Recover the amino acids of this structure.
């Protein structure tokens, strides 16, 4: 079954926000000529001409015909161009080589990859859901390794990977001291020990985690990544700076 990887506007090109530099995709994990680009769906895989790449859902094909990898002939071949692979191509990450109707071509997570001929320019996604057979291939960066307390994990959101507590609530650092308003402290266990840039503030009602000396708090709920002016959302970028 094709796993469609989508993003809702991840800023993966180099950008500086809140003093953080966002991560860039690792080109070594793609076949030659494949990279990532922007689209209304977010970050997607693109071919060397910058146009969106799509995966053919073999599951949907099987429901209609006995053909699978060699399905795209006739009208399909007139509308779609396979992402051809050299005869000596080797698998790269989630990318493998399959024998399509027009010869060796790349597949992503097992789904043959194509470009939609009617897409005129980079960013076009006219082939998404074409006859319920093709879906744009969204790029999701690999989950980062982090140096943080055991209860902290990296969670993918519409602003990229953010550090979150065990309940999935985003974490943010604040320079506030005693007057922290309605912010909810990110509590530390009494026996917690410092790790990396993380320390424990013990001069308050209960131990609280701090990141680079600034008290850490948790967002109101798991769907929120909004922080007040002056506060810093803890993302992959800030964690590695």
């Amino acid at each position: 079954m094709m796993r469609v990887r989508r993003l809702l506007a991840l800023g993966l090109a180099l950008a500086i926000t809140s003093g953080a530099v966002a991560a860039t995709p690792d080109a070594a994990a793609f076949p030659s000529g494949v990279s990532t680009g922007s689209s209304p769906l977010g970050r997607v895989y693109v071919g060397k001409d910058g146009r969106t790449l799509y995966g053919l859902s073999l599951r949907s094909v099987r429901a209609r015909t006995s053909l699978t990898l060699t399905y795209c002939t006739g009208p399909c071949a007139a509308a779609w161009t396979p992402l051809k692979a050299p005869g000596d191509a080797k698998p790269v990450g989630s990318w493998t080589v399959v024998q399509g109707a027009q010869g060796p071509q790349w597949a992503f997570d097992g789904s043959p990859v194509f470009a939609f001929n009617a897409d005129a320019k980079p960013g076009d996604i006219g082939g998404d859901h074409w006859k319920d057979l093709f879906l744009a291939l969204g790029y999701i960066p690999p989950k980062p390794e982090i140096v943080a307390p055991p209860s902290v994990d990296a969670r993918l959101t519409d602003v990229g990977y953010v550090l979150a507590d065990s309940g999935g609530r985003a974490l943010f650092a604040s320079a506030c001291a005693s007057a922290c308003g309605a912010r909810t402290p990110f509590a530390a266990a009494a026996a917690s020990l410092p790790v990396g840039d993380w320390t424990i503030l013990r001069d308050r009602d209960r131990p609280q985690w701090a990141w680079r000396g600034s008290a850490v708090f948790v967002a109101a709920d798991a769907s929120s990544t909004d922080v007040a002016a002056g506060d810093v959302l803890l993302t992959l970028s800030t964690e590695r700076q």
Observations:
- Confidence is low (pLDDT under 50) at residues 1-24.
- The first strand starts at residue 16 and ends at 17.
